Amino acid sequence: MKIATHIDWKAIRADFPILEEQVNGKPLVYFDNAATSQKPKQVIDALVAYYSRYNSNVHRGVHSLSQQATAAFEATRRKVQQLLNAREEAEIIYTSGTTAAINLVASSWGSLHVQAGDEILITGLEHHANIVPWQMLCERTGAKLVVAPILDNGEVSLDAFAQLLSPRTKMAAFSWISNALGTVNPVHEMIALAQAVGAFTLVDAAQAAPHSTIDVQDLDCDFLCFSAHKMLGPTGIGILYGKREVLEPLPPYQGGGDMIKEVTFEKTTYNELPLRLEAGTPNIADVIAFGTAIDYLQEIGLEQIEARENELLAYATAQINEIPGIRLIGTAPDKRSVLSFMLGSAHPYDVGVLLDQMGIAIRTGHHCAQPVMDRYQIPGSCRASFAFYNTFEEIDRFITALHKVQKMLS
What we know:
single chain; 4-stranded antiparallel beta sheet
């Protein structure tokens, strides 16, 4: 395991104003990073700067404010391209989030490639956003949704995944890292297996992008998507990467401004990529601020971030296993940043409420992955998820609080 070195994590933590807040009279411990990350002051300042200094619409104006906004807006696209090692900027499509990106693919790509008798392969680890759009596509077309099962430790059965692939498989869509369990999927192998039967591939990287370096040319996936708000950026912004040759034939997902070249009442001519898939006024301020978030992450280094978070997860896992009655949900050998657990027979909601009274924020419930909870025959789980700005001292407070909660609920 790589060790995070030569980084002043205390100084980095000072960049996040919310971490100085108190909740119920206690210093905040924020362990809900898989739901959304906190934002450094640099990102917050970028939002304020746009609205106070050059607020204007993009791609439409010859005046200075519009040109400045457009330049900053498109600069983020270049940063995402470089972050992913995509071949060109046109392969980067702005959406409102991972969910919107998957829906775009299911709608536009699905309308071209899927018909009755075809199959869409997903896994038992998926977030609802990588289940429901495919179900909707299958309902529209008469295709079949096929699910690769997960093992007791929370890993996808790669053997079952391979066996379920066939010439009928048009799309294999799977998460890189499970939001509910933290399991890291062998995405390189899964992509290669899907390609061997001629299937397209989509990687849900919502949980991977904040914690790992991504090289889409090395992965060779057809689509990959993630959300800005899980990686220090604002809400309401997502990225869809697609190979140009896969994106080029797609019909527009929505109609309106920016996605057109020329409109008459008789016929509309559509714009080139990426604008053809980006109808309407975009989320300009948040795209620009996301560019600042990318700068911030790269200044620290994603390898250093991954190493730091692996240290935090290993420390927390060792500590929590010492608590009597703890049941970890998902014990795959390769995990990132997530501890999902049950505390004896206590309902996750009760555990979450009591921890909140002690200033500790975790997530409880099915985590938009209800089939995962059904697999383990539980109503939901408690989920603590870590980011590089968290500390070992916060984990100690969390473990001490869990001991107290256990006594209160026993």
